[in-house]
Amino acid sequence: MGREFKLRPAPGDDDSDSGNEGRSLIDRRRFNRYAFNASAGVITMASLGSIGFASMLMGQASTGGGDSAVKYWVPMGSEDTVWYGANHLKTMKKSDFESEAAKSSTGMAGAQGLWSGLPVNVVYVPHDENAGTPLQMDKPRMQFADGYTDLGTGKYVGHGDEMLGTVFEPHDNLLVIFSRCPHLCCIPGWQLVANPNTADNWVPGGVDTSGNKLFCICHSSRYDPTVLEMNENRNRSNGETFQYFGILRTGGPAPVGMPLIPFEVNADVIEALPDYMDWYTYCD
Ligand code: FES
Fold it and tell me: What is the reported pLDDT for 89?
């Protein structure tokens, strides 16, 4: 699969949602309790907007093959509250997510992770079970959407279903998502704080009023991990734009959503693929 995608003409779009009105914001001191707490605090710094950390961490990836597995990352202060609290730096397994999802009213489960030094979110969506049923609340499945860039032009970029037949085609009811907020590069989380956007409910269509969003605590950007689109982002260092497959930003100041990371499940272990590392450098 090539990395260059063909653009198609589409109507303009003026999405200027500032996103913070009427929402409860958590102060940054409290956020630090939830921020990633190792790598000499580097990730916590990044959560507060430090530019350049991704390139530092990306350099930690070894070439020995053992880095392909995605590991759990338990945010500081949430060891007793997240379902994977005892699994810090242990290998993520699909069966873990299936077990946790069985306790959910939506059948979804998510966790913070680390892959080759990069922060990720892994989200389980019971797509295979629900895709053949009528759309209804709390029956989540993968949805494909149009992507419109918010990098000044509002142009149409592409449709999420263009990932079908590629390495990004959804499988195993799982998504691995690069977890750097395109606003100011904090690390969004899965149900790390309680609010209407993180509650365990689901509404079709990627609307911003429902729960099970990835939530960025810095300025409350929200992302629906069940809505997959093609969109465009810009590298902060060199200004170059790139197109990617990713999840939908539903609200808040982030201009676009976050990119997917292709992966495989081998003997129950979730292993990510390094084919599109250039998609994960926009915060460098
Ligand atoms: S860094 Fe501002 S909303 Fe995420």
Answer: 96
Ligand 1 binding pocket (C-beta < 6 A) is 181, 183-184, 186, 216, 218-219, 221, 252-254
Partners of residue 270 on adjacent β-strands: 265
Alpha helices in 39-195 (DSSP H): 42-47, 53-58, 94-101, 127-130
Q: Is the pLDDT of residue 54 over 70?
A: no
Ligand 1 mutation target, pool 31, 43, 187, 219, most atoms within 8 A of CB: 219
- The pair of structure tokens assigned to 140 is 């989540």
Mean predicted lDDT score pLDDT of the chain: 80
Domains in the chain, CATH or no CATH each: 28-280 (2.102.10.10)
Q: Which residue's C-alpha comes closest to atom 1 of ligand 1? A: 184
Share of the chain above pLDDT 70, in %: 76
Per-residue model confidence as pLDDT tens digits over 103-112 = 999 999 999 9
- Phi/psi for 139 (5° steps) reads -125, 70
3-state DSSP percent of the chain in helix, strand and coil, to 5: 15, 25, 60
The DSSP-derived string for 106-146 is SS-EEEEEEETTEEEEEEE--HHHHTTS---TT----EEEE
Q: Shortest CA distance to 114 belongs to which of 180, 70, 174, 74?
A: 70
Q: In which band, very low, low, confident or very high, does the pLDDT at 34 lie, cut at 50, 70 and 90? A: very low
Q: What is the pTM of this model?
A: 0.80
Q: Which atom of ligand 1 is nearest to the CA of 184?
A: 1
Q: 130 — phi, psi (to 5°)?
A: -105, -15
pLDDT of residue 170: 96
Among all chains, which residue has been given the structure tokens 């080759």?
116
Distance (Å, rounded) from C-alpha 172 to C-alpha 87? 21
Where residue 66 falls among pLDDT bands split at 50, 70, 90?
low
Q: Please report where in the chains the tokens 């299936």 appear, as a residue.
A: 98
